Amino acid sequence: xxxxxxxxxxxxxxxxxxxxxxxxxxxxxxxxxxxxxxxxxxxxxxxxxxxxxxxxxxxxxxxxxxxxxxxxxxxxxxxxxxxxxxxxxxxxxxxx
Length: 96
Description:
Elements: H1 11-14, H2 48-53, H3 64-67, H4 71-87
């Protein structure tokens, strides 16, 4: 006797799948903005209060995915923070 295959139901194939990327869903990509750069046109190394907002307690620069900055803004932040570290406006690491 031959075994017959059961008919595959089309219900499982017709379901709409969710997108894998969380920002591909409608409305989520619009909310990601730089939280501390509202109204700031140029990032200056002298503005140490602004630079500290983009640094951890240990003195590390926070990544883009956390701060929400664009790549251009992140490069400006990196340059400004490094310049401020050299001049001593912002500390390199934790004071022990």
